Amino acid sequence: MHQHNKKSGWLGRPLWSGNFRPWLIDNSSLTACLKARYREFAVQPMLQKNAKALADETTVLGLKACQHALIREVLLFGNGQPVVFAHSVLPRASLRGAWNGLGRLGNKPLGATLFANPRVKRTPLEYKKLSRHHPISMRVAEHMSVAPKVLWARRSIFSLNCARILVTEVFLEQLLK
Question: Between the chain's N and C termini, which has fewer beta carbons within 10 Å?
Answer without folding.
Answer: N
